[in-house]
Protein: Glyoxalase
Amino acid sequence: MTRFPVTALRSVDLGTPDLGRSEAFYRDVWGLERVATADGVVYLRATGRDHHVVALHRSDRTELKAVTFRVAEATDFDTIARNALQQGATLIAAAASNPAPDGGVIMSLRSPEGCTLRFVHGDVTHEARPSRPELPERLAHVNLNSTDVDRTAAFYEHALGFKLTDRSAAMAFVRCNSDHHAVVIASAKVNGLNHVAFLMPTWEGVMRGSGRMIDAGYPIAWGVGRHGPGDNVFAYFIDPQGIVIEYTAEVLQVDDDYVVRGPEHWVWPPGRTDQWGIAPPKAEHVKAAQLAVGFAA
Structure:
């Protein structure tokens, strides 16, 4: 089995012009729990072991401030930094003690596309709470827009040690563990955030979570359906600040024997957007939202 220097997607840092409203949404509607506040940042956990899966920052605009990954060993920091710099990244901060509530050791890079990537080791974890089907367990993946999908996918492979799992006409799927993908790279005219996906315990949880969102006044933006690459059930929503978020479940588990499939494989009949044929074509306002959130400067 491949040894991955990066072992998991842990969290995202989101900038919001209305911190109070965003916190209330992610806590009371989406299903997360506030675990800490420090220096004006609100940290929200899911039911799993990760210290937090979302960190909310007050900012002038809605933006993706950072994506944080967990590394296997402290010795991997040097390897990741060296390879990332060779692949065009910029070192923001070398590995050092993390003063934030999640602790451990942290290193920060800026990818060639301008996304801040953080890497942690020895960070604080929680005892997992009893699983509840209607609440997220952890992050499933982050989908990033790129003006050059293959270049960005190559960066994750050569700089960070990810493996390409599948390549559709518009997206590359890369992994750092047995999940089919931790990062999805989508072809776009701009670099930025496409959406953030949260893992539910089962497809039943996707449905129950979707029901809770509808009851709270947030209609399904796209779905419910089952994706092709990754085979996961999905339902997409738009948060109060315009960020596209996803409930997902049953992500395909793969190993080194998995055969990468290309665009010629991932083709649907006309009018179909998922395996089941249930999800309607994505509405234009959803497509626009998936292009509207940029990387923080």
